[in-house]
Amino acid sequence: MRAIHFVLSALSLFLVMASVQAAECERPARLHFSLVPQSDLQKDVASLKPLFADLQTALGIPVEVVMPTSYGAVVEDLLSGAVDLARLGPAAYVSAKKQDPGITAFATVSRKMPGQTEEDTFYHSVLIVRSNGPYQTIESLRGKSLALVDPDSTSGALIPRHVFPRVVQTPLEKYFGQLVYSGAHDQSMQNLKKGKIDAAFISSASLAMPVANSGVKTEDFRVLWRSAAIPRNPFVLRGRLCADIKKKIIAVFLDSGGNANENLMRQLNVTRFVPVSDKDYQIVRDLP
């Protein structure tokens, strides 16, 4: 009986240890990727195909794209384990990190915007109006209609709601006559050009490089206000992934100076991937 008890105890201990080890990290059969919907999702995903190919080669597993419905949906999928790797907006990352400290920001892009002589890793929230419209000043927009992007968009909602009111000394809802959410930066630009709204807060990167064939150009708009610099969108990893998987993913992005895949750089219109860490997004976390 003692022998049987010993065997059962050992078996129980083994099962407990196996359970603990399984809980420590996860090895998905396929890597699930998602991204916040900032412009044309189909085109964004298509531009990332060279990255997916590199990840599949490095990991030996297929990459599956989880198409998002909103910024919040991507955060929820990260938290639930439905997504392993994601490209988030800064505010969406801060929100996700607060709920799961294991989520890791590890890379963003460096880009040389039109008119710049050097590449950078930041962008701005900008308030825009039609260049051929009647609005020339911020004051002229009082009582007019305004488009935000998504409640979790940094440049398209967070900065406008928490920083811009200090400029006009009035809450956003009281300064503008109507507030709507468009769902994406390029949609705000299209709605603005069509006259459906009077003004919009969007990302300076979206303004500088409108989606191809979207029917809008940078010169269609006038900038009336520009925020301080915001760190670019981070690529983040789910915390429960095993360390060796994380290491391989990070290497795909950052090895060889972050621009080993020239085709990918062209597709994304960037110069390279660069490393980031949680502290780079403290500026967003410090907003009231």
Structure report:
There is one protein chain. The chain is an alpha/beta fold. The chain has two domains: about 5-115 and about 235-285, Periplasmic binding protein-like II (D-Maltodextrin-Binding Protein, domain 2); about 125-230, Periplasmic binding protein-like II (D-Maltodextrin-Binding Protein, domain 2, 3-Layer(aba) Sandwich), CATH 3.40.190.10. It is about 40% helix and about 20% strand. The strands form three sheets. It has a six-stranded mixed beta sheet with strand order 2-1-3-12-4-13, with helices on both faces. A five-stranded mixed beta sheet has the order 8-7-9-6-10. It has a two-stranded antiparallel ribbon with strand order 5-11.
Brief account:
This protein is an alpha/beta fold. The chain has 13 helices and 13 strands. The chain folds into two domains: about 5-115 and about 235-285, Periplasmic binding protein-like II (D-Maltodextrin-Binding Protein, domain 2), CATH 3.40.190.10; about 125-230, D-Maltodextrin-Binding Protein, domain 2, CATH 3.40.190.10.
Percentage of β-strand residues: 15-25%
In the CATH scheme, the class of the largest domain would be Alpha Beta
Question: Helix- and strand-based class?
Answer: alpha/beta
* End-to-end distance: 66 Å
In CATH, the homologous superfamily of the largest domain goes by the name Periplasmic binding protein-like II
Strand order of the largest sheet: 2-1-3-12-4-13
Helix amount = 40-55%
Mean pLDDT: 89
